[in-house]
Amino acid sequence: MIGFDLDMTLIDTVPGFAATLTALGDELGVDFPVADLTSNLGPPLDYLLADHLPADRVSAAADRFRALYPDFAIEPTVALPGAHEALAAVRSHGGSVVVVTGKYAPNAQLHIDHLGFDVDALEGWVWGSQKGEVLARHRAVAYVGDHVHDVEGARAAGILSVSVLTGGSSQAALRDAGTDAVLASLLEFPGWLDQHVRRTSA
């Protein structure tokens, strides 16, 4: 079992997130700094909104964002290069796939269905070290993500952390967080997996 993060690991969430955030801002009369908020996607939505709304409005605004999301974010969101090939590589070695994401699970499932991702399980609304419990429950042997908090999740589960440079965390930050491998993108994942399987078999 290999775990994958969703946003900025398997999918480019920026266009859909930006469109949804703009629509939310229009409803609330708030001029969100969309470019800044989409430059480091990964943290929970409530965390991203907290600096821009009164504390007592954050939860309701996050709920409204999630309600707007299917209308604004599914169609413009595309698979990142190598995403389908990475999932197929796991299958080619007889493995299975669990997507573990901080995203609201019903919206994450819409992306998976829309893009035709071949996955066995989806776990949503988990972040950072909380992902470790989920990965351990699914008996994952590695977790692929783009953010330093994805590394935290892998470390919490005691499994391999594989990081891609398609999100908001730099190679230096990912290395400092303790990742085991850094790939430019998922295009490099099949080759990494082949080598990993050969090493463990030997």
Report the average pLDDT across residues: 95
What can be said about the biggest beta sheet? 6 strands, parallel
**Roughly how many Å apart are the termini?**
19 Å
Describe the global form. Answer: globular
The helix fraction, in percent, is 40-55%
Task: Give the oligomeric state.
Answer: single chain
* Helix vs. strand class: alpha/beta
Q: Give helix and strand order, one letter per element, not per position.
A: EEHHHHEHEHEHEHEHEH
Unreliable stretches (pLDDT < 50, length at least 5) are none
Portion of residues in beta strands equals: 5-15%
Number of helices: 10
Biggest sheet strand order reads 5-4-1-6-7-8
Descriptive overview:
The protein is an alpha/beta fold. Helix content is 50%, strand content 13%. It has ten helices and eight strands. The protein has helices spanning 14-28, 34-37, 45-49, 55-73, 83-92, 105-115, 130-137, 148-157, 171-177, 189-201, and strands spanning 2-4, 11-12, 78-79, 97-100, 121-123, 142-145, 160-164, 181-183. The strands form two sheets. A six-stranded parallel sheet has the order 5-4-1-6-7-8, sandwiched between helices. Strand 6 (142-145), helix 8 and strand 7 (160-164) form a beta-alpha-beta unit. The longest helix is centred in the first third of the chain and has 19 residues, at 55-73. The radius of gyration is 17 Å and the shape is globular. The model has no long low-confidence stretch (mean pLDDT 95).
